[in-house]
Each structure stands twice: as C-alpha cells, then as structure tokens.
Specification:
Number of helices: 4
Helix content: 10-25%
Low-confidence stretches: 203-224
Distance between the termini: 48 Å
Strand content: 25-35%
Shape: globular
Number of domains: 1
Radius of gyration: 17 Å
Structural class: alpha+beta
Number of strands: 10
Order of helices and strands: HHEEEEEEEEEEHH
Length: 224
C-alpha cells in the first residue's frame, strides 16, 4: 500500500484546478511526471523525466532533475519546441531527483522527490519507487528575478518556514538545483534548460556551484 508521502512524491506538486488552467492559458507547459523505462540492450531499468516550464511576470512553474547527490545530470536530448515556456530536455538515468517549483508572484511552492527502480514481485516488471526529500509550502522569494532583479537570476532561492515560524532549510546538496528551478520559474519566455547540462560540457568542473545556472543559460544563448 502506497503511503501518503510516497503518493505526494509520485504525483509532484498538487495545484488547484484554477491554477493549472491559468498556467495552460498563459502558455506555461510543464511535464512533471516521471516513468520507469526498460533499456533492452543494457538490460536494465531507468527513470525518464523531462525538464520543462517557464514563466510570465505574474507566475511560473519549472521542473528539473538532479543526481541523487544533487549534481547536474547530462540530458539525453534537447527538445526544440514551437513556443516558449514548454519542454526543454529529456533525462534518462537509473536514479533521479525531481525539483518541482511553482511561483505565484513572490510566493513559491517547492517539492523535491527521489525516483528509482523499486521491488520486483514474482518476476514481473519492477515498480517505480518514489520518496519525498523536501516539501516547502508558501515560501517567499524576496527578489523579482522576472523584473528589476534579473541580474540575480541563478543565485536566489525562496525561503521557507514551518507553521510555527521556524526556518526550514532546503537540503544543501540540492540548493544549486533549486536555484536553477527558481530561475526557470522566473524566466519569462523560457526556451532553454536551466540545470540539465549538455553531455559534451562538464560545467561542474569549470565553475562554482552557485554559478551553474547562470553559466548554463549563457552557454545556451551563445550557442543559439
């Protein structure tokens, strides 16, 4: 039986219907689901996800993926869409951590979840194991990355508190990925990946973690 935490981890952020409809109307398209896929030649199962999303000034949502240690993952392939704020790149890997961030103005919802192959029963297909890493509700982003504070994009994250008013820290290992997702959810007309990297470029060896998102955007813009 799936626990409540596992159910939350599997589904991703649960947003009210009017928010989902609003995202669709303004053209922000996110694919938050992950799936377990079989590689026939390698004879193994892998998890597949799609980095996606973008923003308008009013709101934004962005989904990206990291390794279980928080490091950048290389994408399998980029996706060139016909419109902005959509699908950006596909990732396929045995274990993946999903970062799902929604922004309404300066208020943010954040969900970090881990996905991997689960148990195999009676020789059948394995299940997808989903676990909750971090959940932040109604966090506050104190800069306008979509407006007057654009130069801070890639270096800011929302702050979260418990119901009792105590600071709730985002796990340190995933702060670079959350910074990238925050940037993505504030990137008006987004048309590029913010955290999944080009497999031919190892940015982690070249620049500090807190510069990863900004460098990734610069690299994509230079290429295009």
């Amino acid at each position: 039986m799936e626990t409540r935490r596992e159910q939350i981890a599997r589904r991703g952020l649960v947003l009210a219907r009017h928010i989902v409809r609003r995202l669709d109307r303004v053209g922000i398209h996110v694919r938050a689901d992950v799936s377990l896929e079989h590689q026939h030649l390698a004879q193994r199962y892998v998890v597949r996800g799609v980095e996606s999303g973008g923003a308008i000034a009013e709101m934004g949502r962005y989904v990206t993926f990291a390794a279980e240690s928080g490091q950048q993952l290389p994408y399998l392939q980029p996706i060139d869409g016909l419109c902005a704020n959509g699908l950006h790149a596909v990732v396929v890997t045995p274990v993946v951590v999903r970062i799902d961030l929604f922004r309404a103005g300066r208020t943010c919802q954040l969900l970090i979840t881990k996905h991997e192959q689960g148990s195999i029963e009676k020789g059948g297909r394995p299940s997808l194991k989903n676990s909750l890493v971090f959940r932040g509700m109604d966090g506050f982003l104190d800069v306008e990355l979509w407006g007057k504070d654009r130069e801070l994009a890639g270096s800011a994250t929302p702050q979260f508190w418990s119901r009792g008013g105590e600071v709730v820290e985002i796990p340190e290992a995933f702060r670079p990925a959350v910074r990238a997702a925050t940037h993505g959810a504030s990137c008006v007309g987004c048309s590029h990946s913010h955290y999944l990297r080009n497999p031919s470029v190892n940015l982690g060896l070249l620049i500090p973690k807190d510069e990863i998102s900004r460098a990734s955007c610069s690299a994509v813009r230079t290429k295009t």
